[in-house]
Amino acid sequence: MRNFFNFLKSRTFLIQLGLAVLVLIIVIFVTLRYLNSTTNHGEFVEVPDFSKKSVMDMRKSIEEAGLRYEVLDSANYNPDYPRFSIIEQNPVAGSKVKENRKIYFTVNPSGYKKVTVPQIIQVTKRNASSMLKAVGLDVQRVTYVDELGKDMVYQIKFKGKYIKPGDKLPKTSKIELICGNGTITDRAIIKSESED
């Protein structure tokens, strides 16, 4: 045991210990320098604002900034942005990111997605309006005609043309309901009298 303590006090051990510490310091220093140079530590790129830019313009700007990108589909059309323009980006504009970072973009589609006109014939105006709102359509106008069912929907129009349940229209389209006013038509009166 005494020999071991003597060895720890010996000049040979102290030189070897000093060399080991020096090698360790050199390895740590070289590793840190390597990591700084490969990870661009402390070097950032500011993410530009791509809002409302076309995909072509975005590609040019993103290459100049030294970044990568991925375009995500968009489910909802936003009328405040041009068609096929950037409506969202992640990370947001002004963020500091490393060079070659991937930026994710959401692109505005060409228009509203189409929805199916529900079965609203022979349904009350009130219920028809609720059913239309539920699918994303709006009632622009209600026109009344001589039909016995008061406020009963008899026909549907879109941009002046008759449509039927099951037809597809762009979401947020405004349609016209043709409803009965509760009066019996002369035709119905003549028909019922002729049956007597």
From TrEMBL:
It holds the Pfam family PASTA. InterPro entries: PASTA_dom. Residues 42-109 form the PASTA domain. PROSITE patterns: PASTA. Keywords: Membrane, Transmembrane, Transmembrane helix. SMART domains: PASTA. This is PASTA domain-containing protein. The chain crosses the membrane at residues 12-35. It comes from Maribacter spongiicola.
